Amino acid sequence: MKAEARYVEVKEPLVVNLTGGEARFLQVKVQLATRSELGQKAIETHMPALQNVLLVMLRQTTAEELAKPEVMTTLQERATQETNKLLEQETGQKDTVSGVVFTSFVKQ
Is 88 within 8 Å of 4 (Cβ atoms)? Predict the structure, then answer.
């Protein structure tokens, strides 16, 4: 049986400027899912670095990518990979983040 998901909220919305295309900025609210208390503590401990990784990833997103219907799924997968890479470097644990959930996704 899989452990129940625990969600850790990134308290501040993440806002990035976009280059090219019609959308000028993207604002997202994010929660990181994990399946253990250890994972939850690691996420909370490294939250500033995780926010930075997410901002860097979002800044690299083009307006063309944002126009695609599957953009949220693509960004969730990329965010999961990037946050796990950081946490593995910091803690030595693999796959701490089981998923990334966007609770708000605004592009303008």
Answer: no
